[in-house]
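pasting for ref
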Amino acid sequence: MIKLKIEAVEAYLKRAFGDDARLLKAGDIGNLDEQGMKSFGYGKPLLLRFEVGGEVREAVLSIMKGDKYGHQFYWDRGAILMFQYETSARMERHVRPLGLGYVNASDVLIPVEEPEEFFILNEKLEGHDYFLDLERIKSDGLRDADVDTAREFARWLGRVHSVKLDDPHLYYRHIRNLLGSSECILGLVDEAFPPAYSFFNDDRFKALEKRLIDWRWKLKGYTHRLSAVHGDFHPWNVLVTDDGDFSVLDRSRGEWGEPGGDLATMAINYLLWSLYGHDRLNGPFKTLYNAYFEEYFAVTGDTEVLEVMAPFFVFRGLVIASPEWYPDHPEQVRRRLFNLLSNVLEDDVFDWANINKYLE
């Protein structure tokens, strides 16, 4: 719970407006002269009267409150406040923003000055992209260490997914985003395929979306499964070292979600690489796929995941079938991926051991 003392507010004013800024009064809106307060609560607007360069000014300091409508995390709320700061002054009659900032872990108000873009600085990790191993396996065959790596992926996911959270609304949000987010299923349908696409025409896309509504309502009954997740666990987000260790990059789409999403994301890539040498999952990539699933079930005992996986295969299938993201697929590879998208939704329980039946 954030509790901001008046001293912290005055310190912010000095940082934002200059050393001569001086707080005169602070209190509830409409009751400034009777404030008698030393701090204000989270989510409660605070009316400020302050002086800068001899000029008395008034402003309202607000901190957005979290809720279940997509504002659970501070980065959700930060995005909204950044939008308001950037765009409000461009609208006629809209209140003008005077400052944007954040509250740090010590309840200190830190101004953000004229933001245009944000960045992140990460440590440098050792290793090579895992997709290079898949390319080497495609041309040179499988090594024992490759199977060990697939099993270690499954063990790692099992540890990650063992952390649970009781928050049904967050699970609803995760499934809602899976279907409706601009970077998930509907976003891909709109943006990752050309109009009147010959491999999967508009009628097939509409049928796919309608079928997914049934799955959304089915998954509303699985809120007990909410777990810590990576959110984007695929071969371009994994670095593997020569001694078999690995690290992951680019955690995405929230800290909490459905474990089946992570499991499907890597699994579908074993299928993709296999389709470049076969018309189905076969050979060394079938060995990796089987080892991956078998180890995950052995570690977690979670076979219920098969009841919820189909929409996640659709999401990842749309990614790897997209001509924008993967322009060089042979026609037969792309067609089999699109068959998977349609067929996998027709089984209530994903038949992982017989995935090839979805390709026909």
